[in-house]
Amino acid sequence: MTPATAPALLRPEGRTLRADDRPCFADVRDAAARLAGHAHLTPLLRSRSLDALAGCELHFKAEHLQRAGAFKFRGAANAVFSLTPDQAARGVVTQSSGNHGAAVALACRLRGIACTVVVPHGAPHIKRAAIAREGARIVDCEVAQSARDAATARVLAETGGELVHPYNDARVIAGQATATLEMLQQAGHPADGRPALDVVLAPLSGGGLMSGTAIAARGVDPRIRPLAAEPEGACDGHDSLKNGALIRGRRADTVCDGLRAELGPLTFAILQDHRLEVLLVSDAEAVAAMRLLAERLKALVEPSAAVPLAAVLKHRERFAGLRVGIVLSGGNVDLDALPDLFALAAPP
């Protein structure tokens, strides 16, 4: 399969979305058409016992069952599949601590093009192995965001490849938004005239998923309120949006390895426009929610994916009686690390 001859990758009707554009709801629908037959239609999971514990009606979008084990495949595939033949021929470059890198590598393998992933030292072994398994070239770098950016710039200069940023990319944001679009379609329409869901929560890191969540939710029904959840030890997103200025260069201190990135200029602007509120939780609260999801929902997810449920349980009064959608963002868990991880939080 070559970039010029793959019929399944033809761009659907609509504008040509560039990485630095501001995505809109029409771009989300274009992404959904582009991903049809490639991304899994993940189920919407329910648990009566979790509803009772939370005091609201919870709907879990099971993106831990997505290809490559996380929602990231949606954005990665939308970006990679929308490249022109000339762009695709030069290959793709990205940076990632795991899930996005594996997703881009898979999308590039499906399209038959080269992929290089800049990976910081200390990335979880299971995620690094997934990147390699999909055939991508790995370039190591230091953990700091500045080091990731510098290494990515060097690779781009060497290869002339197309950058698919993990979150600060309109094509990625539009792809991530399709998880919420599907969730709202699956949740149905209550007979009382309320929206399919009253609130939709997703974890906040670089902001690609949360930006897409807000665009999709408000695009389907302006009455739906998007909310974000973030670890206390990586609260740059919360502080940036609260203070109205983008915070850069902080050291993240959280077990939620998927939520250590900083907001980008594009995602910050989108979330500002949506006046996004961010709820903070501790690592212990996130791990306790992770345990609950494993015990009650039989869903083994990463600590990052459990942060929104932790926020609902921490702020029960705010969600009482509401229909709440939660994106379970990923399930690439290091099984060998589970005993030490669960030790961070006592059983509920």
Question: How would you characterize the overall build of this protein?
Answer:
With 348 residues, this protein is an alpha/beta fold. The protein contains 15 helices and 10 strands. It has a 6-stranded mixed sheet with strand order 1-2-10-7-8-9, with helices on both faces. A 4-stranded parallel sheet has the order 5-4-3-6, with helices on both faces. α3 packs parallel to α5 and α8 packs across α9. The relative contact order is 0.16. The N terminus is likely disordered.
Give the SSE map:
Elements: H1 25-35, E1 44-45, H2 48-54, E2 57-62, H3 72-81, H4 85-89, E3 92-95, H5 99-111, E4 115-120, H6 125-133, E5 137-141, H7 145-159, E6 162-163, H8 170-187, E7 199-203, H9 208-220, E8 225-231, H10 236-243, H11 265-273, E9 277-281, H12 283-296, H13 303-314, H14 316-319, E10 323-328, H15 338-342
Parallel strand pairs: 2-10, 3-4, 3-6, 4-5, 7-8, 7-10, 8-9
Antiparallel strand pairs: 1-2
Helix pairs in contact: 1-8, 3-5, 3-8, 5-6, 8-9, 9-11, 12-13
Strand order of the largest sheet: 1-2-10-7-8-9
Q: CATH architecture of the largest domain, please? A: 3-Layer(aba) Sandwich
Low-confidence stretches: 1-12
Secondary-structure content class: alpha/beta
Report the top-level CATH class of the largest domain.
Alpha Beta
The CATH topology label of the largest domain is Rossmann fold
Rg: 19 Å
What form results from the Cα inertia axes? globular
Task: Write down the oligomeric state.
Answer: single chain
SSE pattern, N- to C-terminal? HEHEHHEHEHEHEHEHEHHEHHHEH
Helix content: 40-55%
- Beta-strand share of residues: 5-15%
Mean pLDDT: 93
| Distance N to C terminus | 51 Å
Count every beta strand, where a strand is a DSSP E run of 2 or more residues. 10
